[in-house]
C-alpha cells in the first residue's frame, strides 16, 4: 500500500498543475456519473423484480380463491408461454399424498415445510421448459402449499438492457467528465498560465514593463486567481518603478560625478607638472584638488546612503527633539556666519520626546538649514520654529530668498533635482532627498511650500506617536 502511495506522490510531482487539476476534476465527475448509473441500475432491477413478485402474489391470490378446497394437483401449466397465465400447483406436506401425475414445478424440502406451516412464504428462481421462471411458494392451509410461477426472462432481458444502457451512459459520462475537467483546468488556470508566461518573459528579458491581461469586471467580483494576477501586476509596477529609480540614480550620479572628476584630473595633472608652476599656482591647484576630493567624497557618501532606499536599523532611543534642533542651529551658525538663525521653541515642545537616531535627525535638520542659508541673501535670517500641538510636533524652517517656483515644487525632493536658479550654486541636489528619506524613516512628513511674503518654507511634522517598532526604523 505504501508503494502505491509513493507511486502516486511521484506521479503528482512529475505532472503539471493543469494535468493534475484536470485528472482530479474528471475523476470526481466520473465517480459521480458511475455512482448514479450504478444506483439507477439497482433501482431498475429492484423495481422490475418487484413488479414480477406482485404479479405472482396476485396470481396466487386468485388461485387460492378458486381452489380453496382442492387437493394436491396441477392447477395450471401453461406458463411456458409469455401470454399464458401463471403455472400453479398444490403440494401436500406429506409426500404420500402427492397425485399420480408428476408436478410441473420442482418440489423440494422447503416447499413441504411451507405446506406444514414451519416455513414462511418465499420467492425463488427456477428453470423449466428451457426458460427461467420466478416462483412463489405460499401456504394454502390444511397441510398444503401453493406454488405459482411466471416466466422471468422478460424481466431478466429488461435488466440486461438497462445495464447496457446505463453502462453506455456511464461511459459517455466519464468521457464528458474528462472533457469538462480539461476545460475547467484550462479555463481556471488561464490567468496562472499568463502569470507564469509573464514571469518567464521578465526573467528572460529583465524588462518589468510586461503586464498580465485581466478580464473585464469590477474588482469586487474578481475570483482569487484574477486577484492574484492583479497583485502580480501591482508588484510588477513597483518593480518597474524601482528599476527606473535605480537607472535614474546611476545616470544622475554619473552625470554629477563627471564634472568633479574632470576637475580632479585636471588639478592632478597640473600638480604632476609642479616644477613648471609658481608657488601660488601650486597652492591654488592643491586647494582645488582638496576641495574636489571633499566634494566627490561627500557626493559618494550621500549616494551610498540614498542607494539603500531605507535608513539603517540601529537601536532606537528616545530623542528630545528640541535639543537636536538647538544643536543643528548652533552648527549652522558656525557654517554660515553671515546668516542669522533665530530659533523659537514653543512651551509644549521643550520636553517633547520621539523615538529615533539623534545623528540622523541632526543630519536632516542640517540639510534643511544649509539649503535655506544657501538661498538666503547675506544678512537675512533663516527662521526656525518648533511648536507642539494636539497632533504632534511641527518644525518649520523659513528663508527669505527667491522661494521655490510653483513648477519646481513637486520635484524639490527628487534625487539630483536642481532648479534652474540653483544650478550655479554649490551642491549635488541630494540634500533634500536625503532629508525626506530620514523624515519618513522616523514616521515624520516633510513638505515644501512658499512662505508668506516670499521665500521658501519647509515643514517637518512628527506624529503624536513615534514610528511603529520595526517598520522603517531609522
TrEMBL record:
<dbReference type="GO" id="GO:0016301">
    <property type="term" value="F:kinase activity"/>
</dbReference>
<keyword id="KW-0418">Kinase</keyword>
<dbReference type="InterPro" id="IPR036097">
    <property type="entry name" value="HisK_dim/P_sf"/>
</dbReference>
<dbReference type="InterPro" id="IPR005467">
    <property type="entry name" value="His_kinase_dom"/>
</dbReference>
<protein>
    <recommendedName>
        <fullName>histidine kinase</fullName>
        <ecNumber>2.7.13.3</ecNumber>
    </recommendedName>
</protein>
<keyword id="KW-0812">Transmembrane</keyword>
<keyword id="KW-0808">Transferase</keyword>
<keyword id="KW-0902">Two-component regulatory system</keyword>
<dbReference type="InterPro" id="IPR003660">
    <property type="entry name" value="HAMP_dom"/>
</dbReference>
<keyword id="KW-0597">Phosphoprotein</keyword>
<dbReference type="InterPro" id="IPR003661">
    <property type="entry name" value="HisK_dim/P_dom"/>
</dbReference>
<feature type="transmembrane region" description="Helical">
    <location>
        <begin position="21"/>
        <end position="44"/>
    </location>
</feature>
<dbReference type="InterPro" id="IPR004358">
    <property type="entry name" value="Sig_transdc_His_kin-like_C"/>
</dbReference>
<dbReference type="InterPro" id="IPR003594">
    <property type="entry name" value="HATPase_dom"/>
</dbReference>
<dbReference type="InterPro" id="IPR036890">
    <property type="entry name" value="HATPase_C_sf"/>
</dbReference>
<dbReference type="InterPro" id="IPR050428">
    <property type="entry name" value="TCS_sensor_his_kinase"/>
</dbReference>
<keyword id="KW-1133">Transmembrane helix</keyword>
<dbReference type="Pfam" id="PF00672">
    <property type="entry name" value="HAMP"/>
</dbReference>
<feature type="transmembrane region" description="Helical">
    <location>
        <begin position="162"/>
        <end position="184"/>
    </location>
</feature>
<keyword id="KW-0472">Membrane</keyword>
<feature type="domain" description="HAMP">
    <location>
        <begin position="186"/>
        <end position="244"/>
    </location>
</feature>
<feature type="domain" description="Histidine kinase">
    <location>
        <begin position="252"/>
        <end position="466"/>
    </location>
</feature>
<dbReference type="Pfam" id="PF02518">
    <property type="entry name" value="HATPase_c"/>
</dbReference>
<dbReference type="Pfam" id="PF00512">
    <property type="entry name" value="HisKA"/>
</dbReference>
Amino acid at each position: 500500500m505504501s508503494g502505491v502511495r509513493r507511486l502516486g506522490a511521484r506521479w503528482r510531482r512529475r505532472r503539471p498543475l493543469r494535468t493534475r487539476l484536470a485528472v482530479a476534476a474528471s475523476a470526481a465527475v466520473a465517480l459521480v456519473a458511475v455512482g448514479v448509473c450504478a444506483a439507477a441500475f439497482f433501482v431498475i432491477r429492484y423495481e422490475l423484480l418487484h413488479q414480477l413478485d406482485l404479479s405472482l402474489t396476485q396470481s396466487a391470490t386468485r388461485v387460492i380463491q378458486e381452489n380453496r378446497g382442492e387437493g394436491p394437483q396441477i392447477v395450471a401449466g401453461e406458463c411456458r408461454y409469455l401470454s399464458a397465465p401463471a403455472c400453479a400447483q398444490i403440494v401436500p406436506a406429506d409426500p404420500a399424498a402427492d397425485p399420480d401425475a408428476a408436478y410441473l414445478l420442482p418440489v423440494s424440502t422447503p416447499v413441504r415445510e411451507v405446506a406444514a406451516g414451519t416455513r414462511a412464504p418465499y420467492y425463488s428462481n427456477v428453470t423449466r421448459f428451457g426458460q427461467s421462471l420466478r416462483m412463489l411458494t405460499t401456504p394454502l392451509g390444511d397441510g398444503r402449499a401453493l406454488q405459482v410461477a411466471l416466466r422471468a426472462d422478460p424481466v431478466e432481458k429488461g435488466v440486461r438492457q438497462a445495464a447496457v444502457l446505463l453502462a453506455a451512459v456511464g461511459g459517455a459520462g466519464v468521457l464528458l467528465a474528462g472533457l469538462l475537467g480539461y476545460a475547467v483546468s484550462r479555463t481556471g488556470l488561464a490567468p496562472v498560465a499568463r502569470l507564469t508566461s509573464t514571469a518567464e518573459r521578465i526573467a528572460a528579458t529583465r524588462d518589468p514593463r510586461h503586464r498580465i491581461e485581466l478580464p473585464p469586471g469590477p474588482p469586487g467580483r474578481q475570483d482569487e486567481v484574477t486577484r492574484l494576477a492583479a497583485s502580480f501586476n501591482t508588484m510588477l509596477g513597483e518593480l518597474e518603478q524601482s528599476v527606473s529609480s535605480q537607472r535614474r540614480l546611476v545616470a544622475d550620479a554619473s552625470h554629477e560625478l563627471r564634472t568633479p572628476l574632470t576637475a580632479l584630473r585636471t588639478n592632478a595633472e597640473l600638480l604632476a607638472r609642479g616644477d613648471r608652476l609658481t608657488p601660488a599656482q601650486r597652492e591654488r591647484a592643491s586647494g582645488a584638488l582638496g576641495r574636489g576630493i571633499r566634494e566627490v567624497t561627500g557626493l559618494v557618501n550621500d549616494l551610498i546612503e540614498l542607494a539603500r532606499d531605507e535608513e539603517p536599523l540601529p537601536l532606537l532611543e528616545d530623542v528630545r527633539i528640541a535639543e537636536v534642533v538647538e544643536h543643528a542651529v548652533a552648527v549652522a551658525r558656525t557654517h554660515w556666519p553671515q546668516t542669522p538663525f533665530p530659533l523659537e521653541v514653543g512651551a509644549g515642545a521643550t520636553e517633547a520626546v520621539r523615538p529615533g537616531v539623534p545623528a540622523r535627525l541632526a543630519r536632516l535638520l542640517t540639510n534643511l538649514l544649509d539649503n535655506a542659508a544657501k538661498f538666503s541673501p547675506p544678512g537675512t535670517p533663516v527662521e526656525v520654529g518648533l511648536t507642539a500641538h494636539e497632533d504632534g510636533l511641527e518644525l518649520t524652517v523659513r528663508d527669505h530668498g527667491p522661494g521655490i517656483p510653483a513648477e519646481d515644487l513637486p520635484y524639490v525632493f527628487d534625487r539630483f533635482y536642481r532648479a534652474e536658479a540653483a544650478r550655479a550654486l554649490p551642491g549635488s541636489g541630494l540634500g533634500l532627498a536625503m532629508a525626506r528619506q530620514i523624515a519618513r524613516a522616523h514616521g515624520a512628513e516633510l513638505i515644501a511650500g512658499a512662505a508668506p511674503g516670499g521665500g521658501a518654507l519647509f515643514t517637518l511634522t512628527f506624529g503624536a506617536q513615534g514610528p511603529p517598532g520595526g517598520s522603517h526604523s531609522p
